Amino acid sequence: MCFKNLPIEFDEQGRAYLKEGVEEPFAYKKGSLGLVGHGSGIPALKGGAGGETEYTIDPVTRVAGALGFHTMCDLKERKVTEAHSYATLFRGYEVILKGRDPRDAIDISSRACGVCGGVHSTCASMALEMAFPVVPPPMGVVARNLGETAEFLYDHPLHLYLLAGPDYSEQVIRATNPEIWEAAQRTSAPHKDIHGFQTLGEIMTALNPLTGKLYLEALDITRVAREACAFMYGKYPHPSTLVPGGVSTLLDFTAFNNYYTRLMKLIDYSKRMVTIWDDVFDFFLAQNPEYAKVGMRPKNMIGTGCFDDPEAYDATYANCNEWGERRWATPGVIIDGELRTTKLQQINIGIEEFVEHSFYDEWDGQAMKTDPAGNPISPNHMWNKRTIPKPVGRSWREKYSWATSPRWDRTVMESGCYSRLWTTALAQKMPENPFIVSTGHSLKMLLPKSTTLPEMEFEWKIPETLNAIERNRARAYCMPWMCLIAMANVLKAFELLRAGQTKTATPFEVPKKGTQVGVGFWEAGRGYLTHHIIIENGKIANYQILTPSTWNASPVDPFGNPGAYEQAVLNSPILEQFSTPEEFKGIDIQRAIRSFDPCMPCTTHIYAGGRTIVRDVTSCACTLDESDLLGSANEVARREAVS
Amino acid sequence: MRVLIAGVGYTFLHDLSFGPVLIQRLQEMDWPAGVEVTDLSQSPIAVYQQFSERQYEKVIFVGAVRRDRAPGMIHCSRPDGPLPAGEEIQARIGEGVSGTVSLDSTVIVCRYFGVLPADTLVVEVEPEDESWGDGFTPSVDASMEKVIEIVRREAGAGVEV
């Protein structure tokens, strides 16, 4: 059974239909914030009247963009009793895109994120490919796979070393858990022969922000990945060469050789990355098994998959189940650790987006009763959703976030690169290749000899629990996985070049009349991504972007279920050492949140009514006074002022 | 003498586009040998990595930065004072790798890594309209010629007639 909560069933041919006799199939009764999540084991949220300490992080630092988090903590019992995740800025891209030429979606949506620009451009291109329609040639698909693996290879070390990594650094551990730092200095690193650090203490010192060897090395490696991406797309992070029907870059042997050279460096780096993080996380769990509860939540995950097989991808919705299952990263939904589906249509029709606790108005009407294949969809599905911003004062019992509450089969889901890895390992559907094997319980990877290290084999095993450590560990394993997908696609590119199949794009025409519908299914480095589009008479009538962080950062849904960050924090024990509430730093809460790799909008646009979009920035520039930049007045050599 | 003139800003955000738009104007002009004019509206990390490979004797940054001064006001400074605390630098690096383009972060991150020459000048213009769209407000538009004059003089190019 695919759906347990939605009234959708399937006939013998696999076609979905609404259960008979249900009068209003998608109607729902709204719960309240006081309700317990269904079957999630999550404690009820409460008012904090029992002497708890209020602990609010706003902004949550070392995440991309603007996220705030409010908690009530019982420091005596060492637990979190109340948790609210709130996105503090609005992504107005859906509003900006309405009424525009559909091609604008590629460049404009790219600006939704400073890390995932290529991801959004790709997803928008694919939505247009489906709507127009146009099918890219094999080399176009391969180039896209290579550009996107490079983009993910930028994302993963960025997060693990620059954003989440400092949570496990000497600086942080000494301040929050000195007993662990003491042990770390005495503990030999199991993989020292590979990564070169003799003790866990040495690794933690290298993770120190600004000065640590691993922190600084990660800055350098992001450049290598950026360069690889630029060889496929011309530039990064906002490529201008992604088009419906492929890529407009001219690609030859030199471009692929340049990519390959960088890939070898990244493979080398990935071998050390896996062993470093295995050492760190195994050490933490050995020191205190309670760390397995930090960030824990039910194993409910969703992803669209990515990296197409050029022989399978035809850009149609009718065949998306088939080409989706041929992807290098398998699409899928996992509920309680079991793979529920790998079919893109079932993933798509099971999604609804709710706004009861978000700064939006609900919308009337339902533009589409079914998807293009005739499967029923909810009025709350993205093809029916309308973005109607309605900023009001923040209230934990009413509206408190600019994030919405997407749900699949009305269940709280999360997404990340780890869900992509998890689904692919469970599904055993990835293309045959010499490097990666999906076993149903693990993903085996054979890494070739690289710049400094010999051929090596890694196996990521599906963990018992989904928690902060396992999210981050899986992220480390995603690095060699992405390298190997890139390697397989480089080989495919050389094969196509040898066969003279060098065309990277298929010409297309923008329909000027009628209604066209499309959806792009392509994951971000951080997980699930879809772009849903409806085109009417050559203009965008509706455009909806659903990102991984929308899933993860969601507020409570109308049924009373907290979002994924909220659940993860509510389940986290407080393990740091402190004597007084003033010493409490909340590191375990922060580890839980950062393990998702939150990606809130980096530079966003706030809708201020009257179709006005004004810009706000998360940069500190507007809150600086001159002395921050200039040091002091006497260091200002010269000022000239005119008005 | 190797001199770099670099614009930093966001395109299509009205006055915040000052840096990149100015660079387009400057690139159409004649410059003495050794003067490069480029748009560095990129991640501060990418900028720092470029500076670590290519040294200059003088760098002139230009961009619009909101500091609640009179709209269109030009402010020139030499950023050679103490750097912000480590936590702030770390936050700016985090923002930078996440894609935020910021003149302040560019200068601070590059200074932290020691890749800017002692002779670095920052020319800022106070923006008025930061909303989505093309073109400048009259106050910022009016400052353009003066900024060009300052930049050309600082780069040793003289004022172009």
Could you please describe the fold and organization of this structure?
The complex is a heterodimer of chains A (643) and B (161). Chain A is of the alpha+beta class. Chain A has a single domain (8-89, 100-621), classed as Orthogonal Bundle (Cytochrome-c3 Hydrogenase, chain B), CATH 1.10.645. Chain A has helices at residues 93-97, 104-110, 117-131, 138-163, 170-176, 178-186, 192-195, 200-206, 213-233, 253-287, 320-325, 344-349, 417-427, 468-498, 548-552, 564-570, 587-594, 626-630, and strands at residues 8-10, 16-18, 53-57, 67-74, 79-87, 242-243, 246-247, 301-303, 332-335, 338-341, 351-354, 405-408, 436-438, 442-447, 456-461, 515-521, 530-536, 539-546, 603-607, 613-617. In chain A, α4 (138-163) packs antiparallel against α14 (468-498). Chain B has 161 residues and is α/β, with parallel strands linked by helices. Chain B has one domain: HybD-like (Rossmann fold), CATH 3.40.50.1450. Chain B contains five helices and five strands, in the order βαβαββααβα. Chain B has a five-stranded mixed β-sheet. In chain B, β1, α1 and β2 form a beta-alpha-beta unit. Chains A and B meet through α4, α9, β20 and α18 of A and α2, β4, α3, α4 and α5 of B.
